[in-house]
Amino acid sequence: MSLLLIAALAVQAATAIATSAAIRRPATAARIALRGGIAAALVALAALVDATLRDSDRVGAVLVVFVLAVTALVLGFARANLRGDPAAGRFAALAAWLALASGLVASAADLVAIALAWTAGTVVVIALLGHAGDWGQARIARRRAAVALLVGDAGLWLAVVAVRLDVGASALGGLADAAPATAALAGAGVALAAISRAAAVPFHGWLPASLAAPTPVSALLHAGFVNAGAVLLLRTADLPSPVAGLVAGAAGATTVAIAGTAMLTRPDVKGRLVHSTAAQMGFMLLACAIGAWYLAIFHVMAHGLFKAALFLGSGTVVPKPETTDGAPAPSGPLHPAVRFGAVAVAALAPVAAALALGGATAASAAMLLFTVLAVAVAAGGALGGLAGRPGVAWALAAAAAGVGVAYVLVTHAFGDWLALDAPGGALPWPVVPAVAAVLALLAFALRRSRAAAALYGFALGWARPPLPPADRRRPASAVPSEYGSRP
């Protein structure tokens, strides 16, 4: 770890201490947390530039910048969102400590240090989920998170003990010296920790329940917490055993299919976002399992920024009434050939870009399938509302193609810059198209199959926290409506 990166984490640690000291003065605590977080992020940015010039640990540097920057953005939003909340100072302090823990997980070069920071992050998140107070849904959220996350932490500590007893040290550079049996046991523990953080099957229940906490908490979870599984799997990839990849990949593939289907049934904005997050985290674990490491790390940051922004903006999403300007609607539907051709052009453009770049591995080529599907679905949805306007259709197709090509170019450049020296995947690449096919079949069955009603009911109830029993000691009006169903 470079001196600049140590300095950035030291600034964040000082910020967390100062914020905790001002916890009873919410406005002061929020100001200290925000300004200190920005300062730490700027120092981490300097560390990233230094890592680029010196060709040192770029993964740790870029992830620390990501963690601190997203935390600072959430703290800036929370200053206004939690104004008047007596627990706003507590939130600022916990957010500062969580950023420090997540930054240490991303950059530490010792398995014991990673495990200590990992468990510290778990404790902080459980405390954050109690921000709403001691009422029904908040209790359910804390209980589910405590069970799922602490089981994962136990798996990580099992890996630490196994490696220490066998190798005699816990430095990440010595993991390759572990005996096969030790590596398998440690890999299972690492996978347990990764899938519990990612809210993957069978630890899928805690993330939907976390919606009982305020919106800034949901956004903060994307700053290196729910997406820490990829970092842990990459840091321990030298273990001479495929167990971690096999377990994480199986859990990720299952979660992509089920959580992706459950997302389609949610009528509420935050409900769709949380199940989309679970599905995306399954996608991240799957990328690690097939050896697409740089795509997984890119996904950690891109998804974290995107989903944190969506959560912070979820309160402004309201239905818009349909209006008409009195102009006559275009006559005739869009010709099927035009629509098919436009979607095909948009979907095949990223493939052409990848072929032009060359040098793609089988794993990255397999993950490109999801890019193609995303672009095709986006283009098809945009073209669905057009009628008799082929020029607009081709313009939209060109825009979608441009987004797909830009994604391929950016991820390719990121992979070259990251220059990872990591082993191959534990799962073969054909698992990816198989998962995509299953997800497509489930989406189709949800709408058109005879079993659609049963499938819809299963997906709608997936991971939904139960309604808490009525609490006669507390009036319903005392519970903010944002926190969920009132007891």
UniProtKB/TrEMBL annotation:
Superkingdom as given in the UniProt entry: Bacteria
**Chain segments annotated as transmembrane:** 32-49, 61-82, 88-106, 113-133, 145-163, 215-234, 246-265, 277-297, 340-360, 366-386, 393-414, 426-446
Report the residue ranges that make up the NADH:quinone oxidoreductase/Mrp antiporter transmembrane domain in this protein: 108-319
Cite the InterPro entries for this sequence.
ND/Mrp_TM (IPR001750), NU5C-like (IPR003945)
Pfam families (UniProt xref): Proton_antipo_M
- UniProt keyword Membrane present: yes
Main localization is: membrane
Subcellular localization: Endomembrane system; Membrane
Chain residue ranges for the region called Disordered: 468-487
How does this protein sit in the membrane?
Multi-pass membrane protein
UniProt keyword terms in alphabetical order: Membrane, Transmembrane, Transmembrane helix
Q: What is this protein called?
A: Proton-conducting transporter membrane subunit
Organism annotation? Agromyces indicus
